[in-house]
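Worked example

This section walks through a single chain of length 431. The input is the sequence exactly as stored; nothing has been trimmed or padded.
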Amino acid sequence: MPDLNDGETTEIKGSGKSPYILKNTGGVYSCTCPAWRNQSVPIERRTCKHLRAFRGEQAEQDRIGGPLPAKPAKAAGESGSAAPGLLLAHTWENDVDLTDWWISEKLDGVRAYWDGRQFISRQGNVYHAPDFFTAGLPSTPLDGELWLGRKAFQQCVSVVRRQDKSEHWRSIRFLAFDLPAAGGPFEERLEQLRDLLAASGPQFADVHQHYRCRGLDHLREELAKVEAQGGEGLMLRQPGSHYEAGRSATLLKVKTFHDAEARVVEHLSGAGRHKGRLGALAVELPDGTTFSVGTGFSDAQRENPPGIGSVITFRYQELSDRGVPRFPSFVRVRQEAAAAADSVAPSKAAKRGKSVTSGVTKPATRHFELIEGKSAKFWEISAAGNQVTVRFGRIGAQGQTQTKTFADAEAAARHVQKLIDEKTGKGYVEN
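Given that input, the structure is written out below as tokens.
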């Protein structure tokens, strides 16, 4: 790995436009990133993901004289709690031999960090678990998942986002899978975790099951078994790995995605770096279900998107309760359908990536819900050409409907995205 001599500096790309500066001053390494600046430890013991990426995990651990910090300070969430530095997974690309790695089921629940007195989300927001649920949990930080069961993600979110500490929490379990603050390899941390929960005996918490992978055939068998039972996939932990904040190649997720086909009914204009070209395709399934596909495109495909009426293959994880594919991603245009699509001549605006309505009258509707305390609200939005329709109200009621007309479909699409950003910023969850 590279290193810096005393007095040397180097630049490393961050998430913004300007790079961060790494520096070695008499053996004290620093970084200009907020994560390094905001740590409440002496400067000689501070580190960050940029220093770890540049110098290597082991070099940084040796330098600070102990385990790498699992909770670097981050911006406070809406609850005022610091966002925990969680270990995050990469997707397995069939490029690593997973023999002897630790297998566990990938839970379709809500990631939660127990800081010793409360549950905190990845963004630093507090989950208001009732006292009966947290009774018996140790003062030691735990990393795990709040889980209701397979194919129950939306119900789980609805419960854990409530602020009234309701009895609904009795249906939730906290499955812990790591001790973030403990040092040592994964196997030792897992054994400590088992001993800790066995001693404290919490009613609603347990250690998530892990077992060794015997090879590729075993991995495929276990994945098929979990998915047949309605599970989301598998997680694989590297033997002997340490806990580190951020995405790590020591934790891999393995899932089977499904392929399906849908007909393109509209081009939705992009925003931000995609302004002036395709942002997403509005598509329709054979049963009439409409939704949008906004990822998986190359820059060239965004400049020259699949034509209106063409049939695309997309990849998705599962269907929502309303039958809408979750996490759809563009794969390709079905070639045998391309000729038929050519007969549906797109306008010049469509060729430029502008929003165009194809004559399909049924608009794509996106549904969001917010369950907070005693409040349970829904909000829906759909666009058809240059008209945007919003329906909202109490869950279970018909609600109110408002329709607004814009100068063109592009302006309507921008308005749709603006409203969606506002609602999700307020805590609404799409389902």
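What to look for: The first helix runs from residue 34 to 37.
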